[in-house]
Amino acid sequence: MKEAVQQVLDGDTNAFREVVKRYGPEVRAYLASNLSDYQTVDDLVQETFIGAYNSLERYEVDSNFRAWIYGIARNKLRMHLRKIYRDKDRKEQLKIEVIEQLATAIDENYNDQDHVRIQNLRECIELLPEKNRNIIKSRYFGGSSVIDLAQKLQRTENSVSVILHRLRIVLRKCIESGLRT
User: Fold this and answer.
1) Prediction pTM value
2) Alpha carbon distance 126, 172 (integer Å)
3) Exposed site from 19, 129, 159, 162, fewest CB < 10 Å?
4) Rounded distance between C-alpha atoms, residue 29 and residue 69, angstroms
């Protein structure tokens, strides 16, 4: 390998192909053992060899080339992971800011009429027959899907959708009548 490195240093850029051919699979395996995204692995392998080529004049020919190239790969991996964590922190911070802004907007827009409507909705749900009340509660408060409800009620999904639609109409009318009083 010393000969190939020396040839590159002497100006034969094609000799670097031997370096890549010899150490490429090892560097790829090292990076792949630390990352799950193979596209990123390929990118870092390429960056490693570009970095090695650009820094070859600083390599001491009598030293261990494998350790040197692995050091470059390790540094590329560290820089990549730092970037990921920085980006992740930024995304988390952005999520927090958006949630805070939404909460503020909701608080600002939440008024007494909304409170009355919510209270009326609760009362209207309680006025429904038990079977219908359970369907509404399962769907909108329990997180059941239409498919789950259809299986539970032994009905088709379409019929459950129609039942939910009709119940929403009943609830809307009940809420509206409660707001007028």
Assistant:
1) 0.50
2) 14
3) 129
4) 13
Residue tagged 């570009």 (tokens): 50
| Best CATH choice for the domain 111-180 from the list 3.40.1440.10, 3.40.710.10, 1.10.10.10, 3.40.50.720 | 1.10.10.10
In this predicted model, what pLDDT tens digit does every residue of 24-75 receive, in sequence order? 999 999 898 888 888 999 999 999 999 999 998 888 878 888 889 989 999 9
Residue range 135-176, pLDDT digits in tens: 998 888 888 899 999 999 999 999 999 999 999 999 989 888
Tokens of 63: 């030293």
Architecture of domain 2-89: Orthogonal Bundle (1.10)
Q: 94-133 burial string, b = 16+ CB within 10 Å, else e? A: eeeeeeeeeeeeeeeeeeeeeeeeeebbeebbeebeeebe
129 φ/ψ angles, rounded to the nearest 5 degrees: -60, 150
- The C-alpha atoms of residue 50 and residue 167 are separated, in whole angstroms, by 66
For residues 35 and 48, is the Cβ–Cβ distance under 8 A? no
